[in-house]
């Protein structure tokens, strides 16, 4: 899908594309039911009662319903330990009625989040959070991508942004956002620079970027004065009050294209999650469809 030009064409809005992905996912889910008599099922695990996390889980469950996907909700108390959480996730991994597993993150601080992620079976890692998923993505092998990075790539595609040969700066190095989005851009032949909290002279580095992905987790962190005129800016942050990691008003006066918050990257994250859930069900039940992100994986061998 290519988004046509509009008076606000410099805004890369994700809502329309996400809706298109959800419609096609619903069609595939219905076709799977027709072939197998079974609906795709996403199990969502929430530990504790963080209001923001509870809201995200509710949104994902609502989108599941819209797409014809069954949603199994596992809510564990905040005091749940790592061992108990790992056991619950392992049980879901072994359950043939569950095709995808989402552990809502972040989890409470006393839990080993990485251990919990690794309890998800690779075939059900539809959120793309395990080391297996990161490895398959980096090496261009079949698997699931992290949902926000995958959504960012699809959004760039829809707006005709080709990263080939461009200098992309990723601000953030988390294993489920910053690192994987850099790998996906590298797969599209971008020259990628990772920046983080210890980067020296960050504004100067950002100022040389053709494409900036802000995933630092700090509100209004990226300033308009840092940006190269005409740069493409993707804001992957979200903070209370609908604020992202980029100073939106200042960036809009400089950037060639940028994503709004909300309505940019956020809707794409959920859409990719449900698309990958349907694909997981197809692969587990038979009749897998083509991976829409396969074209973005690295060539082998590397050149």
From TrEMBL:
- Family statement: Belongs to the tetrahydrofolate dehydrogenase/cyclohydrolase family.
Domain (Tetrahydrofolate dehydrogenase/cyclohydrolase NAD(P)-binding): give its ranges: 146-284
Oligomeric state and interaction partners are given as: Homodimer.
Question: Does the keyword field hold Oxidoreductase?
Answer: yes
Q: Record's SUPFAM superfamilies? A: Aminoacid dehydrogenase-like, N-terminal domain (SSF53223), NAD(P)-binding Rossmann-fold domains (SSF51735)
Q: What is the stated purpose of this protein?
A: Catalyzes the oxidation of 5,10-methylenetetrahydrofolate to 5,10-methenyltetrahydrofolate and then the hydrolysis of 5,10-methenyltetrahydrofolate to 10-formyltetrahydrofolate.
Q: Which gene encodes it?
A: folD
Which PANTHER family does this one have?
C-1-TETRAHYDROFOLATE SYNTHASE, CYTOPLASMIC, C-1-TETRAHYDROFOLATE SYNTHASE, CYTOPLASMIC-RELATED
* Protein name per its UniProtKB record: Bifunctional protein FolD
Question: Which UniProt keywords are present, listed alphabetically?
Answer: Amino-acid biosynthesis, Histidine biosynthesis, Hydrolase, Methionine biosynthesis, Multifunctional enzyme, NADP, One-carbon metabolism, Oxidoreductase, Purine biosynthesis
Q: Which reaction does it catalyse?
A: (6R)-5,10-methylene-5,6,7,8-tetrahydrofolate + NADP(+) = (6R)-5,10-methenyltetrahydrofolate + NADPH; (6R)-5,10-methenyltetrahydrofolate + H2O = (6R)-10-formyltetrahydrofolate + H(+)
Q: Which residues bind NADP(+)?
A: 172-174
Pathway(s) where this gene product acts: One-carbon metabolism; tetrahydrofolate interconversion
Per the UniProt entry, the Enzyme Commission number(s) are: 1.5.1.5, 3.5.4.9
Q: Which domain of life is it from?
A: Bacteria
Residue span(s) of domain Tetrahydrofolate dehydrogenase/cyclohydrolase catalytic: 14-127
